[in-house]
Write a structure and sequence with these properties.
146 residues, mainly alpha, 7 helices
Length: 146
């Protein structure tokens, strides 16, 4: 029984390795492009601007959205995102991201992500400001002790 179990585990490991992508620059690039096709940066940024605009008076929302998107070089940003993904992620990791975000659940999650970020961003900003204030006080206290 132990030999049969060991054999099954060994076969499963070999099969999973057989399906792994070779981690080459070309495979990374291909998978990064797949990811960017299923999560276009332009859509993400427009959604983020839309959600952030909800924090403004209704009469100011369109102007805010225009400012956030009008002068943004989407092609340059997309290239930077692609190059950075290829640099930091393996081909299999990029494939997993593209597979997830291309799935029904991934697409549904992404539709909610802008609202999530809009809700959480004020807290992140407030906590960052508190941390900066505390750090400044600590530096000032250290300077006074000298």
């Amino acid at each position: 029984m132990k030999i049969a179990s060991f054999t099954i585990v060994l076969v499963l490991l070999m099969v999973s390795v057989a399906f792994a992508l070779e981690d080459t620059s070309l495979n990374r690039l291909t998978q990064a492009e797949r990811y960017l096709e299923v999560t276009p940066p332009k859509d993400l940024l427009q959604d983020a601007a839309e959600q952030m605009a909800m924090n403004f008076d209704p009469s100011e929302r369109q102007a805010f959205k225009d400012l956030m998107t009008k002068h943004l070089d989407i092609e340059a940003l997309t290239k930077t995102m692609k190059d950075t993904m290829v640099k930091h992620f393996t081909a299999d990791e990029l494939k997993a991201l593209a597979d997830f975000y291309g799935s029904v659940e991934g697409k549904s999650s992404m539709k909610k992500f802008g609202a999530y970020m809009a809700d959480v961003m004020p807290s992140i900003q407030a906590e960052m400001l508190k941390a900066i204030s505390k750090a400044n006080r600590e530096v000032a206290d250290t300077e006074e002790e000298k």
